[in-house]
Amino acid sequence: MTRALTDLPAETVDVVARWNPTAAARLASGPEFRHELFVAGPRRAGKSRLIDGLRELDASAFDFVDDPLDAGVVLMVLDAAAPLGREELSVLDVVTRPACPVVFALTKIDVHRDWATVRERDRALLAGHAERFADVTIHAVAAGLRGAPTRESGVEALLAALLSAADGQTREARSGTERVLEQTRRMIVATGRSIRETEAGADLRAERARLLAHRDGQRAERVARLRSQVQLGKVELMHEVSSRIRAAGAAVRADIDRAGRTELADYPDRLADVVKKLSADLDGVVTTRLDHLRARAGVAASDAPGTVPPPDSTVPGRPEPRHRGLEDRMTILIGASAGLGLGRLVVTPLSVVPALDIASIPLTLTLGGGVAWWLARARGHIAERSHMRQWATESLTTVRAQWEQLVLGRLLSAEAQISEMILAESRSRAGEVDSRVAQIDGELRGLTARRNGQLAACDRDLAAIDRGLREISDARREPKHLPERQST
């Protein structure tokens, strides 16, 4: 006993209408038993011409399907050019089922004269391949004939064999409704498998992992890199300060060695101007270095907080007056002695003349005093130069300390400012990442809920199809009510 689709539960009919509307419409528009045919065979075996010939004979005899699992009968097409081989046997194994009848057709007999020998060879090979094909019949067909198929072409005999096999399959096996239900079931199972195998939200999970890996904007790496750059800048700037102080000291000593008394008196002001100019140059070098430091730290110089201009490095006051000591007195004494000796040497010729002997005494004293004065003055100038040189060296040492303090202070201030900016950027980045991660989590939950809903819907539809199949199976197993034997 078979059942129509409309006799099944309403939920089963609804599932079939949603998943397989074409088959449902076919069952609703025609009789329940429909012959579904699948045509298989190797390439260039004449399948298309054979299908056209069958349709010309009876267009409504079969529904040609694309899936062998939906077919009630399989037509295996063989080529008369040569006996079948591995390709034909592999195709046959794929498209046939144990309960599905198979009808064999040998095409192109109008082209190849030894087709009868090929058919016998094919029959022997099929018998050796499977026991079910031991007594198989291979129908010879001239599918290449032009015009409508005739009795001589063998298409009519093939059609009759296909109809006979289809009718027997319909009576002994499944109804068209059952085939539609199984076809719909395969579609639902394939869709559920595809949903399970497809990982929903893979791109979102990858984005989420990438965002969490760099949530703080690589704050630790940037801070560590900043510290190393600060240490490198400290070494370079200290070297720059030392080289500038050495160059200034050499220039100052050379200037003092060539300076006269007037130049020595004005040299503190000149040294202050030199130090001021060098301080301005050094400030430019430090500023350039700090800009490079900000750029390497990923912080724009225009975004950095304004810094207070550094104080000018000045010379610490003027030198104290040089105190005259024992050396100056000894210089005067030595100068006077040398002057007197030189005066006596000069006036010695005058002592020959008695009248000029008395005049030589004041002349000797005058010359001695003059030489003593000059020697004392020269000794004082040399001492002033030495005093100024010592003062300049001490002043440059003080200026160097001021420059080093200035450089270290600006470096530490810049490091603190850049660190604060990195922390602010990290906090902002972390907030943006947390917001995006929360959004991704919401999307993933939505995808998971949608996926679970789709799987649950597939399970419900499978359960409805299975209930319909069980009802068909139960109806087939119901005993036929035979008329009771009348007792006489």
From TrEMBL:
| Organism phylogeny | Bacteria, Bacillati, Actinomycetota, Actinomycetes, Mycobacteriales
InterPro entries, alphabetized: P-loop_NTPase (IPR027417)
Where do the record's region annotations for Disordered lie?
A: 298-324
Q: Which domain of life is it from?
A: Bacteria
Protein name per its UniProtKB record: 50S ribosome-binding GTPase
